[in-house]
# Entry
Amino acid sequence: MRAFAARVLAGAAVLLLAGAAAAAEVCETPPASTGPVSLMILKGPAQVQSLAKSLARGVPVVARDASTVIFRDGRVLTADVEAAGRHLNALGWSRRRIDVVASFAGRRARPARRGG
# Structure
């Protein structure tokens, strides 16, 4: 079930990222790259900024806003998948493969119990 959920998230992320409009605050021009993008979806902007601080050692940030940080090496931390898509399009990375490596976006409701 977990693998299925990861595939569904990956598919949804690809669709959202492919169709997102281009607009971003770019810190520097990223290199032309065709490697995969690693997408980590976090619960909120505070978690994104906190994790970005701990991961930023020596890797330049190429795009950033309150809910998204994108590193030159292809790591994307976001609490807003649509915003991440806009950044990736603005960077020219829309054709790169997207690997959803983790999603902690929020709690899902438990499935309803079947009466019996």
Residues 1-30 have pLDDT under 50 and may be disordered. The longest strand covers residues 98-103.
